[in-house]
Design brief:
The protein is an alpha/beta fold. It has a single domain (3-322), classed as D-Maltodextrin-Binding Protein, domain 2, CATH 3.40.190. Helix content is 45%, strand content 18%. It is built from 11 helices and 10 strands. It has helices at 3-14, 36-51, 70-75, 108-115, 122-130, 170-178, 191-197, 207-212, 238-243, 246-280, 290-322; strands at 24-28, 55-59, 81-85, 134-149, 164-167, 182-185, 203-206, 221-223, 229-237, 284-286. Strand 1, helix 2 (36-51) and strand 2 form a beta-alpha-beta unit. It is globular.
Length: 325
Amino acid sequence: MTFRLASLAAAAALFVSPALADTTLRITLQLPMASHLGQNLLMFKEEVEANSDMKIEIYDSAQLYRDSEVPEAVGAGEIEMGVASLTRYVGEIPAVDLFYMPFVLNTEEKVRAAVAPDSPVRGPIDAAIEQTGSHVLWWQAYGGAVLLSKGEPLRKPEDMEGKKARVFGKWLGEWVDTLEGAPTMISGSEQFLAYQRGTVDLGMTGVSGVVSRKLWDVMDTITVLNFADIEFIVVINQDVWGDLTDEQRVVLTTAARNAETDVRDYMSEFEAGAFKQAEENGMTVYYPTDEEIEAWRAASAPVIDAWLEEAGPLGQQILDAAQKF
């Protein structure tokens, strides 16, 4: 913990007041509690409750809302807090799908630079989300997107042709469409059944999702293409945030910063182990060659041009910033 975080934590402990009593914040999460995002929320809950009289209730596994419903539910005040994939804001803020622009943020170093608080990429995105009725508390790393298949890895763009592919974002769908596949939007909590029933031929998720959902039971091959980065964000309703005391906001902000640092560092270490765990459960993990990746990159280029037309000045602004990393 940095000196600043330590100071904030100390301040939170010293200035707890009676006004903190009877404040309960519910959080909706689409993933299981055993997932690394669930455990990250638990870390946040424990710190908040240790430093205040606030109570945090976590509703995992889409008990209350599916991922696609979280932005509206939190923004409208139907629930105090929620965890949503960043791409769920693409309808109102097309620029958020910078993270799904093929091969733009394709290394951990670039991703860390982009998601740092107040970075020239994240700062404008957080500000735009404020306009939807939600305040961003922290970002949760979910790792790079991988492709799932049965029998054979996806070695070249042509392998996508004519295949039905599960996607979880508009522009990931556009990417599949550009490669002449058939994108099908399927919630993370519903993808296991989609693979099991053959609703789609190909999958798309983070490797942590492969582990937490045991997708090796329904798919047998992972292609590690590093074409997109998956980010989740934890948001709180803007009115709820405004009604909290200064002391409460200090507690929540400090816990959020600690949770964000922990989950990103954890994810960096976790991915290597997750691929090994997938192999131990019978999956083949395929790493494309440099030549194969260049073929994918070239075939994917039209997606970025199309996205910029919708993302407008904000999209251009953060793309330019990302390309400097």
